Amino acid sequence: MKCSIQGCVGQYEPRQIVHTLQRGAEIFVFEHVPAEVCSVCGDTLLSPQTINHLEDLLRTKSKPCRTAAVYEYS
Ligand SMILES: [Zn+2]
Question: Among residues 24, 37, 50, 60, which one has the fewest Cβ atoms lying within 10 Å of its Cβ?
Fold first, then answer.
C-alpha cells in the first residue's frame, strides 16, 4: 500500500515495532506490535484491531513481561 504522507513515494510494509502509549504520567511499552511501516519516511499505521488489543492489555492490567527505565533528556 502506498504511503499516505503527501509527497512520499514509499510503500507500507508489514513490520513488528515497539509502540508506546501514555496514560497520564504512566508510559506503557509494547514490543512486537504488528504495524505497517513506510519504507521511506517511517510513517506507522496500526490497525483498529491492534489498537483495541493494546487497550485490552491495559484495561485487564496484564502483567508486563518486563519493565523499562524512563529518562528525562535534559
Ligand atoms: Zn512515507
Answer: 24
Neighbours of ion ligand 1 (CB under 5 A): 3, 5, 8, 10, 38, 40-41, 43
d(CA 46, ligand 1 centre) in Å: 14
Characterise 51 by phi-psi region: left (phi > 0), alpha (psi -120 to 50), beta (else): alpha
% of the chain at pLDDT higher than 70 = 100
Sign, CA dihedral 49-64-34-46, equals: positive
Residue 70, judged by CB atoms within 10 A of its CB (0-12, 13-18, 19+), counts as exposed
Q: How confident is the model at residue 41 (pLDDT cuts 50, 70, 90)?
A: very high
